[in-house]
Amino acid sequence: MRRFLSVTRGVAWRSIHNTIVNPAILVPSIVFPLFFLVAFAGGLSRISDVPNFHYKPGYTAFQFVFVFLQSAAFGGVFTGFGIARDFDSGFARRLMLSAPRRSGIIAGYAVGALMRWVITGTVVTIAALIAGMNVSGNGVQLVGLIGLGIIMNLVAALWACGIAMFTRTEQAGALIQMPVFLLLFLAPVFVPINLLTSWIHDVANLNPVTAVLEAGRGLLAGSPIKVALAFGLLAGAAALMAVFARRGLASAERAG
Amino acid sequence: MAVELAADRLHARGSSGAAGLIEQTLAVARRSAVRTLRQRGLLIFPLIFPLLLFGINGSALSPATRIPGFPTHHYRDFLIAMPFIQGAMFVAITAGVDLARDIESGFLNRLALTPLRTEAMLVGQLGGAFVLGVVQAIVYLLVGFATGVTLVAGVGGALVLLSLSILIAFAFASLGGLLALRLGTGEAIQGIFPLLFVTLFLSSSSLPRNLIKIDWFKQIATYNPVSYLLEGIRSLVIKGWDGQALALGFGFAMALLVIAVGLSAPAMRSRLARA
Amino acid sequence: MTGAAAIEAEQLVREFRKGPRAVDGIDLTVSPGEIYGFLGPNGAGKSTTVHMLTTLLPPTSGTARVGGHDIVHEGAQVRASIGAALQEAALDAILTGREHLLLQATLQGLPSDERQRRSNQLLERVGLTEAADRRVGGYSGGMKRRLDLALALVHSPRILFLDEPTTGLDPQSRAALWQEVERLAHDEGMTVFLTTQYLEEADALADRIGIIDHGHIVAEGTPAQLKAEIGSPSVEVTPCDESAGDRVAELLSRFGEMHRNGRGTVTVQLPGGETQLAEIVRILDQAGVRVETLQLHQPSLDDVFLAKTGRKLEGAGEENETDAQPPAGRRGRRRRGG
Known about the structure:
Chain A has 256 residues and is mainly alpha-helical. Chain A has helices spanning 2-21, 23-43, 59-89, 91-98, 103-130, 139-167, 173-185, 198-206, 208-221, 227-255. Chain A has one domain (2-255). Classes of the chains: A mainly alpha (256), B mainly alpha (275), C alpha/beta (338).
């Protein structure tokens, strides 16, 4: 356990340090979610005038939850790019050689992703509050929303980690990003699910991200729904992705 | 002695005047087009990604048609303009990265040692953009039709739409070229790419300007030239023949092209060591 | 161009903003048909000099004429009379070899009916006919260099600039390139300005060598002249029987300055040159001295560099700052166009 934690600490420190000293990494990860918040909450706010659009805290809060969770997911995805780059540059081999417990490498990357997302999530939240977002949830409910974000970030980071370790090249960027992108956008992003029609309604119904989004929006609105389902889905996904990432690590070990 | 005479003869017959300029431009354009066609990733991703967004947002935002005053009952008719502009932005990046690669690798130095004229390089390097612009425009239009989009302006409107979208692709490609000449590396241009998309979303891409609720957002969309590019294309689909929208669309596209080329010329001259 | 120099530079200087003087007052003259070797370590100023002479970089001060044309005021005429294969091969990985040549031929203004013929001719000359229609991205380093050379020759220039043409090549490719350079100069009368950091390349190819260090030419002349400046050859004789060392020393003392080394070895300078070697062998044989080894040592260009700069050429590059090269597609402050 001690070795596992020391490897985790080392890898996480490097990940966080590289982000902080390299604005080219940190700035986009903050700017993009802010931009989405502005574009969606600002540009599409008229959508709340659509008949039967019901969300008490208002459209800014409605979009904030999506952007909050999206930033968590993409924070995890960007970690995968860093891992793939490490393989391309050969640094990953150095990590594999030095780490006594290699699973700590995965944990380290995941912790690094989470720490980066704490910065992003904070900035996005402050921006939304400045924009006049209404918050109706109580403390526990808001902690629940944050918890959803944390596990979302973990799931995405483990997914990205797995793909990066299986492929071991930066060329796999699209493969890391696309499924996450599709899962996020094939959910009720702009309107509640009851207003969606045709094929997208059916897809959103089956999409596990829908439950997470709705739970998050419910927590922010102070009317929690599907919370247990959301956490259950995310926990299950995290467990699955942990196995996937571990298998990726094994594949990288075999490749040498 | 034989070498001297041969060289003199070759240069006496060499390029001069307008004929030479056209030949040089075509040679550079041919190279640009060949490079673009041989990089399948450049063709496929800029085609698929905008269509993906069109497909998803076309359904996800369809309830917007129920907003009082929305100009059409079919949201895809409204949204179809977006892939054309997104595609043009991909063309900008492709053109910019290609030229940056030539700068970084020293290929531009090689061209600088020939009688290649600045004007030929400026226009010729858009050859790839022309290919991409045409392919994208045709594919987007066909996919639009296949998903139920109807063009109120008819067949003539389709031709005008294709012309406008190719002009927009040219304009953005020139912008990409200008960025390459100023920044000099492909990495820097890739870094600029997200900013282009910001301009797309801070426009009337998802809702008409008159229906944007937030005042400051509406102001930005009003001043954003991308709104007029979108509205020019969109007018042919939704309204038919709207002279003002078309004039603004073509006008802003031409303005972007002229400004980008105008600013690129001195930068290209500097890179090519021209008198 | 008979009579006039092919290349002449007078006090050529290139300074970079926030950088050192990469070229610090170079004077050189290259005759038509000559192979001029520009030898120096990394960062000496070789490539910067070439960039100026090929009009890719304006000089900070000084003048130069290439092919009889001023590099600053008559840039287009200079470019028309030169071909250049620069340090970066600068090829487009997506185009084929033939496409490169056709593009170059078009841009050089060759008539359309000559382009294909000229391309085929050059492909054959550099041995790339079979690979002509393959993308350059799949070429080996040697193939890229050969294509680079072919591109420089498309318009049959009178003057050819080669900037470290064999760096990174295997011995076979290098030898082939040397052969071609010699042929161009000796059979076609082309003037070749060749920069290199390899002693043996300059020694083998160049009619005259200019040795550059820290932006200055520190020595110039034919390889033989440069080496002769430093000293004469020497011969080292080791007798089979160590005790015969005194006898060897006595026999060879008449030839020149002598040193005794371990194991009876005697080293003697030959001010009369290597032609004295035959006499040494005859004298030792007549005296009945059995010789284990007999070695002739010639001064090398490295010895010349050492004598002029106090450093060996090999390894001097590590001490220099990197050649302050402009970025490809250079941005320089221009005195005037050209």
